[in-house]
């Protein structure tokens, strides 16, 4: 694990879309208005390459070993991440024209549940995405990315860091608990069922 470096993400990192999709899973279908895996990954890659949206490289960091991206994390002050939602929607509309609107009209309750989701509290430093590539498993990449995010939170003067995790993602839940995160709440908005987790870092 010692030769794995964490660096600021760049638009040319072609793994960004794949990693984001792995992290947000079926939420992507509602946001983007498509259920086709290739289209979802391509759209998320475009958002990764763009700036000023909540899936962008400009608030993300990557774990690199031998010039290969093994994982990524998107993190920052929760208020700043939330402020990126409107630009994110506009960028998606620019890319996909009417598709997002069709998704909204077809699944209004799902879309409402998604956009009104309470991910954390004001004053949190928040991790909105964490994922690793299949070939990175067992290398401690996720732990290294989490530790990096905690240090970023401390450097920015935050004393708590938060994230959400799908309730049935036992592997991720075990990892976060091992890293010191505690369940402090739940999100139960059909079809999204998640735990809110937080860790004090100062």
TrEMBL record:
InterPro entries membership: Acyl_CoA_acyltransferase, GNAT_dom, YpeA/RimI_acetyltransf
A single MF term (Gene Ontology): acyltransferase activity, transferring groups other than amino-acyl groups
Keyword Lipid biosynthesis among UniProt keywords: no
Pfam families linked: Acetyltransf_1
Keyword Disulfide bond: no
Residues spanning the membrane: none
Domain N-acetyltransferase: 4-202
This protein's name: N-acetyltransferase
Species annotation: Staphylococcus devriesei
């Amino acid at each position: 694990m010692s030769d794995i470096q964490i660096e600021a993400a760049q638009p040319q990192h072609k793994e960004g879309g794949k990693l984001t999709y792995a992290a947000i899973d079926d939420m992507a279908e509602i946001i983007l208005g498509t259920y086709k895996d290739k289209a979802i990954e391509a759209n998320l890659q475009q958002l990764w390459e763009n700036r000023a949206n909540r899936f962008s490289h400009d608030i993300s960091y990557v774990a690199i070993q031998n010039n290969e991206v093994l994982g990524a994390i998107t993190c920052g002050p929760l208020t700043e991440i939330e402020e990126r939602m409107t630009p994110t929607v506009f960028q998606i509309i620019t890319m996909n024209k009417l598709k997002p609107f069709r998704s909204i009209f077809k699944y209004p309750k799902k879309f409402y549940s998604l956009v009104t989701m309470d991910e954390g509290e004001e004053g949190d430093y928040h991790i909105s995405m964490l994922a690793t590539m299949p070939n990175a498993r067992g290398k401690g990449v996720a732990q290294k990315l989490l530790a990096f995010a905690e240090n970023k939170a401390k450097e920015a003067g935050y004393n708590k860091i938060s994230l959400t995790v799908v309730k049935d993602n036992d592997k991720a839940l075990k990892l976060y608990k091992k890293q010191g995160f505690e369940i402090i709440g739940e999100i139960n908005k059909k079809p999204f069922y998640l735990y809110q987790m937080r860790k004090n870092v100062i």
